[in-house]
Amino acid sequence: MAGRNHLFIPGPTNTPHSVLSAMHVPMEDHRSPIFPKLLTPVLEDLKKIFRTEKGRALIFPATGTAGWEIALTNTLSPGDKVLIYRFGQFSHLWMEMAKRLDLDVEVHEIEWGKGIPLDHLEQRLKEDTNHEIKAFLATHNETATGVTSDIAGVRKALDNANHPALLFVDGVSSIASIEFRMDDWGVDGAISGSQKGFMLPAGLAIVAFSQKAIDATETAQCKRGFLDLKDMINANDTGYTPYTPSTPMIHGLRKALDLLLEEGMDNVYARHARLAEGTRQAIKAWGLSLCAQPGWESDTVSAIVVPEDKDARDVIATAFHKYNISLGAGLTELAGKVFRIGHIGDMNDVSMLGCIAGVEMAMLDHGFDIKPGSGVAAAIEYYRSTAA
């Protein structure tokens, strides 16, 4: 098919040409005297993305899922109690990982379409007078449902309860896209991956830890090998890594950081919010609704509920095979019930308008009761009226 595939899934996201070019480098010696000149500034600039001066940023040749494991195994011991709310596929998977690591996992089920209930969280923490809960696992942006939780509110709940639990945040589909302030929110472990807001291929677990979390490594008894935090910190202190890194990915990350910091993080957040709202205006014009309930909407991904007599998988297949557009599928409990539009990373107004037009065509092909051009028109009016 002529033209390129148009990628509108919530990850991996589109990689800018300048980032791809930066990765096109010969293999190099990662033990050379000059390698620290590449790695050390990257780690320092990552702190600007996490919005931390007190924390420590690190990169592992892995994925965001490995970041979950890094946080848990390096700071906790088998049998330690962790608290998590399950409200989508990715909070579910983090919960399952914690169980496999022999942690005592306390799970609270929340309706898919909502996020972390702050009042319930604060009450539960106040009830834990013996401080048996050692960590709270917060999914900032639940990619499966398009729901964003209030991490500043989570910190307030911990503080109001005077609870010392570590706060770990899955920011895989939020960090570098949605407002994230590690120091201000008292986050102890921030977890991301290279393939979403950082606009790179999958392959790097990009994480940051507070000194409190790093101190916890001294007593943590969970087994770890390749993902040992102390090994990485000790090597990074000399400008190197404890094992072979992906040097092309680090070069790509260098360029991605340059793009993000040149735009400015507040502008990055505002751009994602604006692109997301234009998409939501289109969804409203179609007469459809989000999986996310009002107040929980994500600025990086919209999960769109199809009518009961339709199958979202048909829309996704037609969009791909007929119009060369990739959309996100509904996962597990939402399979066939939603399709997802990713508005994250290297996107602009025209990018989103192309996606909205393609989605309209695919839905019309399957008999959706929508007016051709309605979503596109609504998004155009929003983008025109809010353009800088």
Please give the structural blueprint:
Elements: E1 6-8, H1 17-23, H2 36-50, E2 56-60, H3 64-75, E3 81-86, H4 89-100, E4 104-109, H5 118-127, E5 133-139, E6 141-142, E7 147-148, H6 151-160, E8 166-170, E9 189-193, E10 205-209, H7 211-216, H8 229-236, H9 247-263, H10 265-286, E11 289-290, E12 301-305, H11 312-323, E13 325-329, E14 338-342, H12 349-365, H13 374-386
Parallel strand pairs: 1-13, 3-4, 3-5, 5-8, 8-9
Antiparallel strand pairs: 2-10, 6-7, 9-10, 11-12, 12-14, 13-14
Structure description:
The chain has 13 helices and 14 strands. The chain folds into 2 domains: 6-12 and 265-386, Aspartate Aminotransferase, domain 1, CATH 3.90.1150.10; 17-262, 3-Layer(aba) Sandwich (Aspartate Aminotransferase, domain 2), CATH 3.40.640. Helix 2 packs across helix 9 (247-263). Strands 2-10-9-8-5-3-4 form a 7-stranded mixed β-sheet, sandwiched between helices. A 5-stranded mixed β-sheet has the order 1-13-14-12-11. Strands 6-7 form a two-stranded antiparallel sheet. The two termini are 35 Å apart. It has 388 residues and is α/β, with parallel strands linked by helices. The chain is globular.
- H-E string: EHHEHEHEHEEEHEEEHHHHEEHEEHH
Got a strand count? Answer: 14
Quaternary status of these chains?
Answer: single chain
Count up the helices.
Answer: 13
Low confidence ranges: none
> What is the alpha-carbon Rg in Å?
21 Å
Q: Could you name the CATH class of the largest domain?
A: Alpha Beta
What is the fourth-level CATH superfamily of the largest domain?
A: Type I PLP-dependent aspartate aminotransferase-like (Major domain)
Shape: globular
Beta-strand content: 15-25%
CATH fold descriptor of the largest domain: Aspartate Aminotransferase, domain 2
Structural class: alpha/beta
- CATH architecture of the largest domain, please? 3-Layer(aba) Sandwich
Helix content: 40-55%
Sheet with the most strands, sense and barrel status = 7 strands, mixed
Task: Calculate the terminal CA-CA distance, rounded to whole Å.
Answer: 35 Å
Taken together, the total number of domains comes to 2
Arithmetic mean pLDDT: 98
User: Order of strands across the widest beta sheet?
Assistant: 2-10-9-8-5-3-4
